[in-house]
Design brief:
By secondary structure, the chain is α+β, with helices and mostly antiparallel strands. The chain contains 13 helices and 21 strands. Among the domains are: 87 residues, Dna Ligase, domain 1, CATH 3.30.1490; 184 residues, 2-Layer Sandwich (Nucleotidyltransferase, domain 5). The C terminus is likely disordered. Pfam families: FtsA (PF14450), SHS2_FTSA (PF02491).
């Protein structure tokens, strides 16, 4: 049994699944409103723990099992990606080679992780590219013989505070962490095809608290960009502009919202309960769409600048949108207009979970299931957890697994954008270009948050 835990800004999701002969079957889930999070980052551990316990209990009751450990995702905030390398000597005093054990693998991983990190950073994950025994590259060195063992790989580091708070919250919720996975890596496991991960694609996760763009190429996470604007910002825009409650704004967004004003009906209107007024006001679909489009243009515009700066938009896989914010009519067409590449939306296929908001939590389980035993062993060193070989429910046909042997080293060390603690008002230019009604009101609204 595998359990994925997605600690999101709006909701905390728990998915329980079984892997039977290479087929991942979701058998239950819990989904509760988040507390104690802001822009994907924990700001109140006790509140998060309470929501986490509720989600876990919900999932346990649906499948009638006890959840003891989870695979948890960590956001790409302040993520750094760099190469790492470790080497150990295997020969004895008589200069003879010997068989490589799991302890040797642990030792070479520790050697690769040993480097000077500032106190504010911590290791999230190590992904081996290759092991080298006496200058010969191998995928899994266990039970082979040699005099020297090396490991080349990719080292992911992040904010020590973010990592500590996640670990502490999960621990206080009464479960153990089996693995910690960088969120875009998990999402890419299900949202991108084998060819898209190989030839190169961009995965944009429109979360409620932030939007993350990840560049995947040669089955590796090469780059991340985090914009501290997400679906909640669209909701807030609607709430402020229409002077209605956040709950009403969210309902309007999900029920009547369009990402492109040109796709909305100019004659179709609906009532909006305005704060301080007894009678509701009538608003057109087009007007609501103009509000939504302005924010999305700002988000996509920033991402475009970041991706264009590293020439990522030339990759053949195009862009895949996912996350709760991707579930807005017309967002595919808007993204294609802004980025100038092929865009598609990924929705999970599991019954009852067919919305983009469940992509990451399903990806966490899929990623854990599809990893090779040697990768599980490496991660047990990183996360200081027990290593258990052959953990699948039943023997799995290897042909159904997507195990990757990395050959090429990353060309550049990539760094995710830092978190922005300020609410970002919509740029005036984005609004002016769309000719939004009541421009003076929008101008006043933008000035509020500068």
């Amino acid at each position: 049994m595998y359990v994925g835990l997605d600690i999101g800004t709006t909701s905390i999701k728990v998915i329980v699944a079984e892997d039977v002969k290479g087929q991942l079957n979701v058998i239950g889930y819990g989904n509760v409103r988040s507390k104690g999070l802001s822009r994907g980052v924990i700001v109140d551990i006790d509140q998060v723990v309470g929501a986490m316990k509720e989600a876990i209990k919900d999932a346990e009751e649906k499948v009638d099992v006890s959840i003891d450990e989870v695979i948890v995702g960590i956001p790409a905030n302040m993520l750094q990606i760099e190469q790492c390398r470790g080497m150990i000597t295997l020969s004895d005093n008589n200069n003879r080679s010997r068989e490589i054990t799991e302890d040797d693998v642990r030792a070479v991983v520790q050697a690769a992780m040993t480097q000077s990190l500032p106190p504010e950073r911590a290791v999230i994950d190590v992904v081996p590219d290759e092991f080298i025994i006496d200058d010969y590259s191998v995928t899994d060195p266990r039970e082979m013989q040699g005099m020297r063992l090396e490991m080349k790989g990719v080292l992911y580091t992040g904010s020590a505070t973010i990592i500590h708070n996640i670990r502490k919250s999960v621990e206080k919720a009464g479960v153990r962490i089996n693995e910690i996975v960088v969120a875009p890596i998990a999402s890419a496991q299900v949202a991108l095809s084998e060819d898209e991960r190989n030839f190169g694609s961009i995965l944009i996760d429109l979360g409620s608290g932030q939007t993350t763009a990840a560049v995947i190429h040669d089955h590796k996470l090469k780059y991340t960009y985090v914009d501290q604007e997400g679906g909640n910002y669209i909701t807030r825009d609607i709430s402020v502009v229409l002077n209605t409650s956040p709950a009403n704004a969210e309902r309007l967004k999900t029920t009547y919202g369009y990402a492109l004003a040109s796709m909305a009906e100019t004659e179709e209107s609906f009532s909006v309960q305005v704060v301080g007024q007894q009678e509701p006001e009538m608003i057109t679909e087009e007007y609501l769409a103009q509000i939504i489009e302005a924010r999305l243009r700002q988000i996509f515009g920033k991402i475009y600048q970041a991706l264009d700066g590293i020439n990522a938009l030339s990759m053949p896989g195009g862009i895949v949108l996912t996350g709760g914010g991707a579930d807005i009519w017309g967002i595919k067409e808007l993204a294609e207009e802004i980025f100038g590449v092929r865009v598609k939306i990924y929705r999970p296929e599991e019954m009852g979970l067919r919305t983009p908001t469940f992509t990451q939590v399903i990806g966490l389980i899929e990623y854990g299931v599809r990893q090779s035993e040697i990768n599980h062993l490496v991660r047990s060193v990183v996360h200081n957890t027990s290593y258990r070989p052959n953990i699948k429910s039943e023997p799995v046909d290897d042909s159904n697994q997507e195990l990757v042997h990395y050959q090429e080293e990353p060309e550049v060390d990539y760094i995710a954008s830092p978190a922005d603690e300020e609410f970002q008002a919509i740029d005036d230019d984005n609004l002016a270009k769309k000719g939004i009604r009541d421009w003076k009101f929008f101008k006043w609204f933008s000035e509020l948050f500068k």
